[in-house]
Specification:
Arc Repressor Mutant, subunit A, two-stranded antiparallel sheet, single chain, mainly alpha, 2 domains
């Protein structure tokens, strides 16, 4: 089994390196022909080899799948490679709109506007274009308004393994009460917890 697992770990590492999106265990099973338990062992082997070897890459669980990413400690130097190519940041209105959708999904545009207290047409359009939200159906009420939900691209962008990893509303209140330095430290602690408990 050792030789087979070594080969499978190399295949999994190659697939994670080549993929632009996180790969679920199920998808890795389909691509390699291996079973779930073998894939989980192979992913663990890749994780251990990268961390023991002092490599610049690590395996993280994002948006329901595994992905190879750069070690966050090297983010500064890697970001220089992409200067001028980053997509624009989300506006405050788009972030607020996205937060309402994330915590209320599936929800209607009217729900978002009721929470924010302003029209959200532009923000919704931006989020749809960036594929952070999708139309998830229609509400079974008069007028049948559209329902919106977040996407795996949303999870990936914010470094979340699943919707359950969103901060609880009480945690957000505590973070908002912190100063800038405390906020940065708390965000780092939350991210570390995400990596340790995907």
């Amino acid at each position: 089994m050792g030789m087979t697992l070594d080969r499978l770990a190399r295949e999994v590492e190659a697939l994670l390196m080549a993929s632009e999106k996180p790969l679920s265990v199920e998808h890795l099973c389909e691509l390699t022909g291996a079973g779930t338990e073998a894939i989980e062992q192979a992913v663990s082997r890749v994780e251990n080899a990268l961390s023991r070897g002092g490599h610049a890459m690590q395996v993280v669980f994002l948006a329901g799948g595994y992905r190879l990413v750069t070690d966050p400690e090297l983010g500064g130097v890697v970001s220089r490679l992409f200067e001028g190519r980053r997509p624009g940041r989300l506006t405050r209105a788009a972030l607020e709109t996205l937060a309402v959708v994330a915590y209320s999904q599936p929800c209607t545009r009217a729900r978002v506007e009721a929470v924010r207290g302003v029209n959200c047409d532009s923000a919704m359009k931006t989020l749809l274009e960036r594929e952070f939200i999708v139309i998830a159906g229609r509400m079974e009420t008069p007028g049948r308004p559209l329902l919106y939900s977040t996407t795996p691209a949303f999870l990936e962008y914010f470094g979340l393994g699943a919707l359950e990893h969103l901060p609880r509303l009480d945690e957000i209140g505590k973070l908002l009460a912190l100063g800038a330095d405390d906020l940065e430290r708390a965000a780092g602690e939350i991210q570390e917890e995400e990596y340790e408990n995907p």
